[in-house]
Amino acid sequence: MFYILLTLFGCLTGITAVLFGFGGGFVVVPLLYRLLSASHRADDPIGQSAMHIAVATSTCVMIVNALIATDKHRRAGNLIRHYLWPLGGFIALGAILGAVAAVWVSGEVIRYAFIAYLGVTIIDCLLRRGFLSRSEGIIPRRLSRTETSGGGVGIGAIATFLGVGGSVMTVPLLRRCGLSMSQATSMANPLSVPVAVAGTLTYMALARFSQAELGAWFVGYVDLLAFAVLTLGSLVGIRLATPWIGRIPDRVHAWVYIALLMMVMISLGVS
């Protein structure tokens, strides 16, 4: 049952990666945390490290999802170069800082930080102008230097700390620059790649400082079996979602994005 659920939710991560820019973290982190906590005792090393494992494995899954989804959107012509670089470089720098911080913080702190950040983001998207509605004929503005440098480092640090791809921050940011939901969510995928790569490598390297012995199928905090099953499921989801690229009405796209954030926050909050 454990791996059946991972396969089904892996498929969901593929769909959300293509249509909403979620590289997997908003699905994988709550799911894997709950499954590991339920299947291992509180005094078991895996049970004690459940949140760290969920976050680290999530960043690993995001590498595959983000790269494949990026290629799909490149072919659809949704990517705009000047929104990707140098923002992506600053996000990578922040990702390393976030992964280092997360390794030295308890799993419960990460979990509550995840819930709190989702709540703030949902409220911000609902109340601040520019996310739910987009004026017709608006000319998108470029990111400022502060948004690119400071914002990029902040996005990378928070995203890797929480084990998400950064779409929860990049999508609202790009949306307020005047981009459509289709364009904003498309850009979230390549911008998630530096978070996923930097986060995964850092978790693998720093986990050796932990005294926990997790088993043969772990590289650092990354659960290789869970990663393989989730990735196979995500490939199916990506294939199913690809025909819908650019076909969802903009306002509907924005509301569904917020609804997904709410579902994940509730799921993690009641675990």
Explain what you see.
The protein has 271 residues and is mainly α. The chain has one domain. Helix content is 72%, strand content 1%. A two-stranded antiparallel ribbon has the order 1-2. A hairpin with a 2-residue loop joins β1 and β2. α1 (2-20) packs across α4 (50-76). The longest helix is centred in the N-terminal third of the chain and has 27 residues, at 50-76. It is globular, with a radius of gyration of 17 Å. The protein starts with a helix and ends with a helix. The model has no long low-confidence stretch (mean pLDDT 78).
Radius of gyration: 17 Å
Q: In total, how many beta strands?
A: 2
Overall 3D geometry?
A: globular
Please tally the helical runs, counting DSSP H or I stretches of 4 or more residues. 11
Backbone structural class: mainly alpha
Distance between the termini: 18 Å
Regions with little confidence, pLDDT below 50 for 5+ residues: none
Strand and helix order: HHHHHHHHHEEHH
